[in-house]
Structure prediction request, 69 residues.
Amino acid sequence: MTDTTQEIEGMVREKIMARSGEMRFIMGAEMFESAMEMAKASLPPGLPVAEQRRRLFKHIYGKELDVWD
Prediction:
């Protein structure tokens, strides 16, 4: 669902694409970092590091990963 008109979406895309590839990469990395921090904040406190990593991986990528042990 979106409440943004195609005209506004086009304007936003145009502004983003006008930036350098380096700036777009940095923006993406910063957004990913923010998403990770929000996901970390949703975890129960006191989890062992390996369990935190497992849960974060599943939350972000939607898959189980058992290589952190």
Observations:
- Residues 44 and 52 are 9 Å apart (CA to CA).
- The two ends are 39 Å apart (CA to CA).
- Helices lie at 6-17, 21-41, 49-61.
- DSSP finds three helices and no strands in the chain.
